[in-house]
Design brief:
- The protein is α/β, with parallel strands linked by helices.
- The chain has two domains: 125 residues, Four Helix Bundle (Hemerythrin (Met), subunit A) (Up-down Bundle), CATH 1.20.120; 113 residues, 3-Layer(aba) Sandwich (Rossmann fold).
- Helix content is 58%, strand content 11%.
- It is built from eleven helices and five strands, in the order ααααααβαβαβαβαβα.
- Helix 9 links the parallel strand 3 and strand 4.
């Protein structure tokens, strides 16, 4: 899958027709804009969160306006339009309503940034012709799939399980890396969903042990960070996708469904 195809699969980017009309130079310019967004977002996110902590709505508005301009530049049209509508209502909204929207927006933008980074990472892997990745064994489509979900936060585990209530699958929960490895002595999951920041053994370390044991099923990491170096480390550890905290039930279900 080339970079054009990968970018088409990012739901926030409204670019299918635009990509068809782009020549290689225009595509390079667009890629530069996407990478600029990825590089700039963590700092902007931190500024927005600081402004929200001090209830400085003017500063929040200023930073979100900058983010909206970036969204327009990368053709995230629907997000940009929604941001504009919300900004225009901030003077009438209650602080708790503003806080809820800002939290939702930052979570969505984190997912967007990660998706962009994953698209470029996979494109680079294809160009380097990496062929030593173990292939997945074929499985019966009708078989109920097993998911091993690992998170030290039991509330997050419950939220994740609730998000998949309409998907026919068996979810095994573990609250630590060591307990997850105990589970692997008894079964072979079809999918791993790993929180990254856990005490003791973190998700990236657990992923390494999972692969060392010969398990080749896809790994989805749960994270709240879109920092480039962090995402790259996860991809090197075997990430197939990411779910962003706080967990959006529908978004999580959509991402999980792709691997079942």
């Amino acid at each position: 899958m080339n970079i054009r195809e990968s970018l088409r699969n990012i739901p926030e980017l409204v670019i299918t027709k635009r990509l068809q009309m782009m020549n290689n130079n225009q595509l390079d310019e667009y890629v530069a804009l996407l990478l600029s967004f990825v590089d700039s977002f963590p700092a902007l996110e931190a500024e927005v969160k600081t402004a929200m902590e001090t209830t400085d709505i003017k500063a929040v508005t200023k930073h979100l306006t900058s983010i909206r301009e970036m969204l327009i530049g990368i053709y995230a049209d629907e997000l940009a339009d929604e941001c504009w509508k919300r900004l225009n209502s901030f003077d009438k909204d209650r602080p708790d309503k503003i806080e809820a929207y800002v939290s939702f927006l930052l979570s969505t933008l984190t997912a967007l940034s990660i998706d962009i980074q994953v698209a470029f990472y996979k494109d680079e892997e294809e160009e380097e012709s990496v062929s030593d990745t173990p292939s997945e064994p074929e499985k019966e489509d009708d078989a109920v799939k097993t998911i091993l979900a690992v998170d030290d936060d039991t509330y997050s585990l419950d939220t994740f399980k609730a998000a998949l209530k309409d998907i026919p699958c068996k979810i095994i929960g573990a609250t630590s890396g060591s307990s997850a490895l105990d589970v692997l002595n008894k079964l072979k999951p079809d999918l791993f969903v790993l929180d990254i920041e856990m005490p003791g053994m973190n998700g990236i370390e657990l992923a390494a042990k999972i692969r060392a044991q010969g398990h080749t099923a896809p790994i989805i990491f749960i994270t709240g960070k879109a920092i480039k170096e962090f995402v790259h480390e996860c991809m090197k550890a075997g990430a197939s996708d990411f779910i962003v905290k706080p967990i959006n039930p529908q978004g999580a279900a959509d991402r999980i469904q792709k691997f079942l």
